[in-house]
Design goal:
With 122 residues, this protein is mainly alpha-helical. It has one domain. 81% of the residues lie in helices and 0% in strands. It is built from five helices and no strands. Helix 1 runs antiparallel to helix 5. 18% of the residues are buried.
């Protein structure tokens, strides 16, 4: 399978996932106030494993759009590791954030998901 074909397949998986996960998290932002450190840790485990799977299977470092997928893999590993290493601190930050502070980064992730979906299906 060519690198470009693999990139498009991953974009078709990651893009819609980012859209659905981000949109539903934004709609249900109130549930994070009741989250626990154990929940943050488990979320970190999932992010780490997903990021590791992407990074191992898509290690493209070129001045082209597929590099974004590689960066998402490495970013997922880093964010997952952070949530696993210091779940209490991550939880404190989440509980302290206002809806506006959460909405802006979530909107960026939503747009990234839309862009990846477009790249994957175009």
């Amino acid at each position: 399978m060519s690198s470009d074909h693999a990139s498009r397949r991953l974009a078709r998986l990651i893009g819609p996932s980012l859209i659905v996960i981000t949109a539903t998290e934004m709609l249900n932002s109130h549930i994070w106030a009741g989250n626990t450190a154990a929940g943050v840790y488990q979320n970190g485990c999932v992010l780490f494993v997903a990021g590791l799977a992407i990074a191992q299977n898509h290690n493209v470092w070129a001045a082209r759009w597929p590099t974004v997928i590689t960066l998402l893999g490495w970013g997922g590993m880093a964010l997952g590791l952070l949530r696993m290493a210091v779940p209490d601190r991550v939880l404190d930050v989440v509980k302290r954030d206002t809806d506006r502070q959460v909405f802006e980064p979530a909107s960026a992730v939503l747009l990234l998901g839309m862009w990846l979906t477009w790249k994957g299906y175009s």
